[in-house]
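Here is one chain, start to finish.
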Amino acid sequence: MADRLIIVESPAKANTIKKFLGGSTKVIASMGHVRNLPKSKLGVDVENDFEPEYINIRGKGDLIKSLKKEAKSAKKVYLATDPDREGEAIAWHLAYILGIPEDTVCRVTFNEITKNAVQEGVKNPRKIDLNLVNAQQARRVLDRIVGYKMSPVLWKKVKRGLSAGRVQSVAVKLIVDREEEIEKFIPQEYWNIYTILADTKSKKTFEAKFYGKNSKKLELKSKEEVDKILSDIKNEKFIIDNIKKTERKRVAAPPFTTSTMQQEASRKLGFSLKKTMSVAQGLYEGVTIPGHGSIGLITYMRTDSTRISEVARAVAKEQIEKKYGKDYYENRYYKTNADAQDAHEAIRPTYIELEPNEIKEALTKDQFKLYQLIYNRFIASQMAAAIFDTIAVDIHAGEYNFKANGQKLKFKGFMTLYVETKDNEEEEKDTQIPELTEKEEVKKEKIDTKQSFTEPPPRYTEASLVKALEEKDIGRPSTYSPIITTILERRYVEKDRKQLAPTELGKIVNSLLMQNFGDVINVDFTANIENQFDNVADGKEEWKQIIRDFYAPFEETIKKVEKELEHVKLEDEVSDVPCDKCGRMMVYKYGRYGKFLACPGYPECKNAKPIVEMIEEKCPKCGGNVLVKKSKRGRRFYVCENNAKGQCDYISWNKPGTEEKETPKKKTTKKAKK
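Its structure:
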């Protein structure tokens, strides 16, 4: 008989924790949730004050029997599921199944899986926090009501199997809205004038850019304006008006939150959100390191706080001063967002002495990449600012003004180790300006003009969508990855070179939902509900009241929409492709793998065919047409039309004309062993 039984979610976590506790302690895994709402029905008793109708998850019968048996034979049972609302809910369900009363001191939490943290957690158990449980229940029940009530509308009017969701539909709306912005965007012409100037003393050259006229900024919109300026300054002298030298500091980015980790892993490593969270989960739960055994390498990876412990801060200081010198350390605190739950620290390494390169051989390729990213970001966050010497020079040529800017890195600081990447941001480079003096004349060596056009806003990437969701207060750290994974799997959105674009199906679904459920599928409502969930977690609001306030008007909307749409039939989009069996013009339909062509004469004519997408670029090997196809995971690749005939072997993930890095692998069938 074990003195103590500790139940966690996963076997990896169980194996790591086992070694930190005595031999009389048994650690087993629940394999995630053991109870959930049923899939076959709403599972919420609206007549009985929205009581959830939880059932044991199908297929977990034997596991539940085993958990009950182990709990019965143990003197004390501790529930050590993850330290967030979902983990608290799993613990609450386990307590129900095992017959542990709600007021029993049985809940153990730790932010990192290290010996000290685990032992401290077990020494200081607490009761299950029902506020956290109820916050999770509020989200689960509200999302179930929204999904199960709105989805049938899509089934009737678009196709079966589609789903609508409170948060996922808002994410699709953001992507559709951005696409509409891009499509409606009208480029505006603008011009720049650049001149290469030379210091007469040193003969060194530098570039100056046109600024304006009589010290007022002037936007150049046409070639006529540019030509006039060029004519006006043709015989003018270029004189230095003002030189301003300053020192600029660049401060390190804070240690990772879930959101910033997902964004940086996407930008720097090319990881999807789902992959990032999966790899991070493994690093948190435990990796076998020679000489250390199985240990958790990072703190809990679902957090919106940038706070770090004083112990971690002290170890980071020691590491920085030892490796880089005292000048490189700076005791830095970061302000956490006012809306952050701040229950956990930022994501950081748990054993700071374990540098990534020292344990590289013990990690998978992906684990090493992400661990190195987390490690370097954390250490850099405690390093001194980078210092730049900057110079700004004002120049005039007659009544026209030019400006030149330069900078030189004086002290690298944190940039020695890590520099945060930002969307559409250019890398900081040294730009040299020679030693100039005011009132000095500089020689015009060359003058160039450049015509440009304003560009539409870029499509969202996974990284920039997460940033937008966070800024608009939509979802929480634990939900960003499932939201984006869901809308990709539902084929409402597709990836095109890392950019997220709405499919025709996504546009249709968004339009239908916005026309009929605009008060639910909107940013303000979604953000407000998230804040209400936070209030429940803090004990400031009763969870069922949120559902009560929401349900009555929502149910009225559902009835109204069903009545209005009863006689409405969504017409299929007609293509310009005739059916080769009966001659009717084929229509666009949506199936499991996306859009395809089908004969409108069904069931008399059952002809259907895939949509062939062709690009302008020709095959670099044979000059044939290049088709765009998609892998089972929805990734686009390019293949020569002659490939199917066996006349050309061109196939690539990259569009012809871009550098080829990898080739899609053809599926091979393994021969059975005799």
